[in-house]
Amino acid sequence: EDRMPLLVFTHHQFDLIKNIDELERTPAAGNIVAAFAGHIHLNRAIESRGVSTFVCGSSLPTAEGTVNYNIIGLDGAEMTVTNRDVVSGTEAVWWQGAIPVTRNGAAAETD
C-alpha cells in the first residue's frame, strides 16, 4: 500500500463539498493528512470530516487595504502556515506543527 502523505487544496472545506464522498471512496483518501480551503476568508485550523483543515484567508483587499496570502512550508516532518501581508511585507506564522497532522481525530500513520 502506498502511504505517501497527501495535502489537498480545495475552495471549500470538506464539510461543504456536496460530492466529497467521491473523494473519500478513493484508495488515496486514507493518505490525506491535511486539507487547505479558502472560501470563508479566515486563517484558522479546524477538523472537517476527520481531516485537519487549514482555512486560509483571501488575497482580496480587506476594508483596511491589506492584501494577504498564505505560504505552506514543509520541512521534513514539520509544517508551517505563514500569512504574508503584501502591502507591508510582514509575515506571521499562524500554525506550526508536525505532519502528518490528524486523520479522524488521531495522528495519521506513515511508514
Strand content: 35-45%
Shape: flat
Q: Which structural class best describes the helix and strand composition? A: mainly beta
Helix content: under 10%
DSSP summary: helix tally: 1
Mean of all residue-level pLDDT scores: 84
What kind of sheet is the major sheet? 4 strands, mixed
- The gyration radius over C-alpha positions equals 15 Å
**Spatial strand arrangement across the major sheet:** 1-2-4-3
Give the terminus-to-terminus CA distance.
10 Å
Low-confidence stretches: 105-111
**DSSP strand tally:** 9
Q: Quaternary status of these chains?
A: single chain
N to C succession of SSEs:
EHEEEEEEEE
Characterize the structure shown.
- This protein has one helix at 20-24, and strands at 6-9, 32-37, 44-48, 51-55, 68-75, 78-85, 91-98, 102-103, 106-107.
- The protein is mainly beta and 111 residues long.
- A four-stranded mixed sheet has the order 1-2-4-3, with no helix packed on it. Strands 5-6-7 form a three-stranded antiparallel sheet, with no helix packed on it.
- A hairpin with a 2-residue loop joins strand 5 and strand 6 (78-85).
- The protein starts with 5 loop residues before the first strand and ends with a strand.
Short structural description:
The chain is mostly beta strands. Helices cover about 5% and strands about 45% of the residues.
List the helices and strands and how they pair.
Layout: E1 6-9, H1 20-24, E2 32-37, E3 44-48, E4 51-55, E5 68-75, E6 78-85, E7 91-98, E8 102-103, E9 106-107
Parallel strand pairs: 1-2, 2-4
Antiparallel strand pairs: 3-4, 5-6, 6-7, 8-9
